[in-house]
């Protein structure tokens, strides 16, 4: 389509200049709506505060599939030096979701022009709040996914050059769980620890013991980890506090490991605390499960990559997470990493996307949606 490259680049720069945080993507949503309506793309009526769903109904019969594009930004002050850098202080599209938005828009525009030939329906989900790790649930609370039989997703990848896709079969990102452990002892004077129950050595013992879950309880061939990222107790030098708090994250790939981890973490915290005469209260906050790439969809994504002139490298799995996995609890999915030029990693203030990759990515996605429906491999 003539002029599409220029248009998508212009849209991309607009989204990059106007980043909005999770659940606040109002301007972003309005802009996506405006662009899609102008291009004659249908938008599904659905009750989302932010985010929206476009639909392309093929004139030939076929199944319904979805493409997920997340749209939110991060609370990071941009230091990219780009002429179109963020105009919102302290906020930045540092995870490339602006690139995901325009790839989805481009895909919608291209597919819309081929809908007489399209065998089935494609829903393009502009999803809010991926960075909160729970935004996908906003989509799942609507009826948008009810008839969808499989879902595709993409992510910008600054570890690969433009023109390279990272694709792997099986687990791609980990399940993301968060925990808070509150240890309750008995506060007292720092000079008289025997009058109380000091929660600080209890917290230290719990931190040490938690690491043994990975090395002593989980199969050594299964990736898993625990990071205690916050430890807080007391506020002065001569008072033993009453409580200590630990917080952190657990990452697993396997569903059974995830359940085991939750159980062992609670047991270790409770019993370790009890051994010192203290108590532990555990708050386990479950995030998205692991993302898993379906074998047949992976084959499709690779074939189309070849056809569109992309080269494919095997993607390494990551202990990071993506709420894309919530969709995959219901239907098969495939999550593709798109090389956006080597540079600063995502979530860094100097992260950049090579603009030359925008149009080819939109074309690739449109081709992938089209071909996978034609092949009717559902
Ligand atoms: Ni991201």
What does this structure look like?
It is a single chain. The protein is an alpha/beta fold. It folds into two domains: about 260 residues, 3-Layer(aba) Sandwich (Aminopeptidase), CATH 3.40.630.10; about 110 residues, 2-Layer Sandwich (Alpha-Beta Plaits), CATH 3.30.70.360. The chain is about 35% helix and about 25% strand. The protein has an eight-stranded mixed beta sheet. A hairpin with an 8-residue loop joins strand 1 and strand 2. The protein is elongated and about 80 Å long. The model has no long low-confidence stretch (mean pLDDT about 95). The structure holds nickel (II) ion. The site of nickel (II) ion (NI) has 4 residues, from loops.
What's the layout of helices and strands?
Elements: H1 4-17, H2 26-38, E1 42-43, E2 52-57, E3 60-70, H3 97-112, E4 119-127, H4 135-140, E5 150-157, E6 164-167, E7 170-173, E8 175-184, E9 188-189, H5 199-217, E10 224-233, E11 239-240, E12 243-252, H6 255-275, E13 279-286, E14 291-293, H7 295-307, E15 311-314, H8 324-328, E16 333-339, H9 358-374
Parallel strand pairs: 3-4, 3-5, 5-16, 6-15
Antiparallel strand pairs: 1-2, 2-4, 6-16, 7-14, 8-12, 8-13, 9-11, 10-12
Bound molecules: nickel (II) ion.
């Amino acid at each position: 389509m003539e002029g599409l490259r220029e248009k998508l680049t212009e849209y991309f720069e607009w989204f990059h200049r106007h980043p909005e945080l999770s659940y606040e993507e109002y301007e972003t949503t309005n802009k996506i709506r405006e662009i899609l309506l102008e291009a004659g793309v249908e938008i599904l009526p659905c009750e989302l505060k932010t985010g929206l769903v476009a639909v392309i109904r093929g004139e030939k019969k076929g199944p319904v599939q979805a493409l997920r594009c997340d749209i939110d930004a991060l609370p990071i002050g941009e230091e990219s030096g780009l002429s179109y850098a963020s105009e919102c202080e302290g906020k930045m599209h540092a995870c490339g979701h602006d690139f995901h938005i325009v790839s989805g828009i481009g895909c919608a525009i291209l597919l819309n022009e081929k809908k007489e030939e399209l065998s089935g329906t494609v829903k393009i989900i502009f999803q809010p709040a991926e960075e909160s790790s729970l935004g996908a649930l906003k989509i799942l609370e609507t009826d948008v996914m009810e008839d969808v039989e499989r879902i595709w997703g993409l992510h910008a990848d600054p570890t690969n050059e433009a023109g390279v896709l990272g694709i792997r079969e099986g687990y791609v990102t980990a399940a993301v769980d968060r925990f808070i452990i509150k240890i309750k002892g008995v506060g007292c004077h720092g000079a008289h620890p025997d009058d109380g129950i000091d929660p600080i050595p209890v917290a230290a013992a719990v931190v040490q013991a938690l690491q043994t879950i990975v090395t002593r309880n989980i199969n050594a061939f299964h990736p898993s980890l625990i990071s205690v990222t916050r430890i807080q107790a007391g506020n002065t030098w001569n008072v033993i506090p009453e409580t200590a708090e630990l917080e952190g994250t657990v990452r697993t790939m396997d569903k059974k490991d995830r359940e085991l981890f939750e159980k062992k973490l609670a047991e270790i915290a409770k019993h370790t605390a009890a051994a010192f005469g203290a108590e532990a209260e555990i708050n386990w906050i479950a995030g998205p499960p692991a993302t898993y790439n379906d074998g047949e969809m992976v084959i499709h994504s690779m074939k189309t990559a070849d056809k569109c002139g992309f080269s494919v490298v095997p993607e390494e799995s990551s202990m990071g997470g993506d709420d894309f996995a919530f969709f995959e609890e219901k239907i098969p999915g495939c999550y593709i990493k798109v090389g956006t030029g080597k540079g600063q990693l995502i979530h860094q203030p100097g992260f950049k996307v090579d603009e030359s990759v925008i149009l080819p990515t939109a074309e690739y996605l449109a081709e992938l949606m089209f071909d996978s429906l034609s092949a009717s491999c559902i």
